[in-house]
Amino acid sequence: MNKRVLRRIGLYALKGLVLFIAVSIAAFTLMKLSPIDPVQAYIGADASISPEQRAKIAERWGVGEAPVIQYLKWFSAIARGDFGTSILFRQPVLSVIGERAIASLALMGASWICSGLLGFILGVLAGAYHGKWPDKAIKAYCLTLSSTPTFWLALLLMIVFAVQLRILPLGLSIPMGKLESEVSLGERIRHLILPALTLSLTGVSSIAMHTRQKLAEVLESDYVLYAIARGEKKWTVIRRHGLRNIALPALTLQFTSFAELFGGSVLAEQVFAYPGLGRTAVRAGIQSDMPLLLGITLFSALFVFSGNCIADILYRVLNPQIRRLGNG
């Protein structure tokens, strides 16, 4: 394998490791500063636990040790693949994250593709008719969406499509009363539509406005004005010169939107009772399930980091100028 490729892979791995350690320190510090008592969270409302048993649990977990020692023990366990056991689900944290991540990735993947395509098309239309009524209408639509809270939009869609029209289910990822093995692919998709539509609509505005601005700049450039002066039609110019110049920034912006996508999924999953990582994180926070909450925090950090890495790689692969600068 090329040495430059190996060096680039090593650099990404080093950045990922530094980010992982930084996020783990920040998350652990916040957990220690919170008023949550991990022993009490583990015991819950069980009144049969005596003070001696409680003291033994605290001693076994090292609650009385210095925070630095506690962090080092926790991080060394994570390095061995042991993220602890979820108090809420009574299962290993990695198993819980693995089960919920499948549902969340399906939701975020569908909404990511829809918002990217719809936002790009709207951005091209707005840029092509810059200053005219289609541009003003799309701009107003995007500004309205960008200022609309995700949970409010989710409730609105639920009222319209699930309560009034009754063409889509209210929530959950599968029909109530059915086993996981009995659910068909069509039923899963029906339950996915409303949460994915919510996330897609909220993610359209940024990509549409960015594409609009880039295309307007391209259409005002000298070489495009020269092409139009030679008699080429506007949509021919856009197809030959505009799309090539705006596609790469739009693709990069879409990959760097993983953080907003994950944040929006937390609200959408909560409204639609969709059993993904976002809803699980909220339950873990409310019920003081610290091992699970810390595990989801680290997973989300790696998820966002992977999106930024993909965007950086695509930029280098598709843009020869950036590739030459990086190699130099």
Structural notes for this entry:
It contains 14 helices and no strands. By secondary structure, the protein is an all-alpha fold. The two termini are about 20 Å apart. The mean pLDDT is about 80.
Features:
single chain; mainly alpha
Give helix and strand order, one letter per element, not per position: HHHHHHHHHHHHHH
Q: What structural category characterises the helix and strand content?
A: mainly alpha
Residue share in helix: over 70%
Beta-strand content: under 5%
CA distance, first residue to last residue = 18 Å
Q: What's the total number of strands?
A: 0
Number of helices: 14
Show unreliable segments: none
Largest beta-sheet characterization: none
What is the approximate shape?
A: globular
What Rg is obtained from the alpha carbons, in whole angstroms?
Answer: 25 Å
Give the overall pLDDT as a whole number: 81
As an assembly, this protein is: single chain
